[in-house]
Write a structure and sequence with these properties.
- The chain is an all-alpha fold and 368 residues long.
- The chain contains 16 helices and no strands.
- α3 packs across α10 and α10 packs antiparallel against α11.
Length: 368
């Protein structure tokens, strides 16, 4: 399967968007501490909008998994084994690293008044300790995103908060073959009924008040963005009905989608079409495409993006929390900014080593 540089670069931008947003929360350099209305305020709001980055990841996943299933046509067992080997090893190692450095996480994130949501973070750690077995079992099975707050508080975000999206991804992987082949192999009217039922389910889950999820970590809430990705891949099929289905799914997802994530996806999809030779860009757009996606640096960062996404909070905890313990909790805000900057620099080689020693061996094993 052709590996688009554009898709890899998009992953890089989104992963580092999340890292930057989380670094702003830790350093106190947040829009919450800036007077509203100015350019700086809105830029900071944008930089802390990490959920849009994750929503873009989800669209990408819908597109890539659909392409994989339509092109490879492998058995369900082989498909799910390869997906498991892709996400689980780095997830489980990141999870246990996060658990090991939890005392330093508490030091970094609950000691200083400028850190965003310090009280909530303390409550979350207490919840982990009080219901440790439940949270651990759910995380080990990658099902922690399913349970609502009313049944198990902080279910999706204990231990390693960014990993809620991996639970969502795993839920999608489990049902993707049934969903995608069900959509593409059904006749026009059956297909439309399936889409209508899915839209009604999404609407019901969004509007009901009995249960809530801190993030869109249960599949039905993440489904609109997956549908956008699936629909966009259907548009590349030669079959006219498949194209109609693709437009229909994009339209259905559009009713519930994060519009900024959709805009970002459409920009990079156009760059992917340019990369593939399907469309032509004038010179100035080609330069923008090279800067955003078609260069070795962003492609490399995209390859390392899983490790970056999962390990940055433990790294922040280790460096900021460790230094805070060393000086007895007396770090200034400027010192925390410097330490977070150091942590970001550390993430580059660490992500590379994690990819080389953890991710890549299991990916190769899955391919063989």
């Amino acid at each position: 399967m052709k590996k688009f540089e554009t898709i890899e670069s998009l992953r890089a931008w989104m992963a580092w968007w999340v890292v930057v947003g989380h670094s702003m929360q830790l350093t106190g350099l947040s829009y919450r501490n800036v007077d509203g209305g100015g350019v700086l305020y809105y830029l900071m709001v944008l930089l802390e909008r990490g959920f849009t980055a994750v929503n873009t990841f989800i669209i990408v996943s819908g597109f890539v998994i659909t392409h994989l299933l339509l092109v490879k046509r492998e058995t369900y067992f082989l498909y799910i084994k390869r997906r498991w080997l892709r996400v689980y090893p780095i997830f489980i190692i990141s999870l246990f690293v996060a658990i090991l450095v939890q005392p330093l996480y508490l030091e970094a994130y609950t000691t200083y008044p400028w850190v965003y949501a310090g009280e909530m973070r303390l409550d979350r750690v207490l919840e982990e300790q009080n219901n440790y077995l439940y949270h651990m079992v759910l995380h080990l099975t990658l099902m922690h995103g399913i349970v609502p707050e009313e049944i198990l508080k902080f279910s999706s975000s204990t231990f390693l908060a960014p990993a809620w999206s991996l639970s969502l991804e795993w839920q999608f992987y489990l049902i993707a073959p049934v969903l995608i082949f069900g959509l593409i192999n059904r006749g026009r009217w059956k297909f439309f009924w399936i889409v209508i039922i899915l839209c009604l389910l999404i609407f019901f889950f969004k509007e009901q008040n009995a249960y809530s999820w801190k993030y869109s970590s249960i599949l039905i809430l993440g489904l609109p963005h997956f549908l956008i990705g699936i629909g966009c891949r259907f548009l590349f099929e030669e079959n006219r009905l498949a194209k109609i289905k693709g437009f229909s799914m994009v339209a259905a997802g559009f009713l519930f989608v994060d519009y900024l994530a959709l805009l970002i996806w459409m920009v990079f999809l156009l760059i992917a079409l340019y990369e593939n030779g399907s469309i032509h860009f004038p010179k100035y757009l080609a330069l923008i495409a090279r800067f955003l996606a078609l260069n070795k640096f962003t492609v490399t960062l995209g390859t390392l993006s899983y490790s970056t996404y999962l390990l940055h909070i433990p790294v922040f905890s280790l460096i900021v929390g460790g230094c805070s313990v060393f000086v007895g909790g007396g770090l200034s805000q400027y010192a925390v900014v410097a330490l977070v900057s150091l942590s970001i620099l550390v993430m580059f080689p660490l992500s590379y080593l994690s990819y080389k020693w953890i991710e890549l061996p299991f990916v190769r094993f899955g391919k063989n």
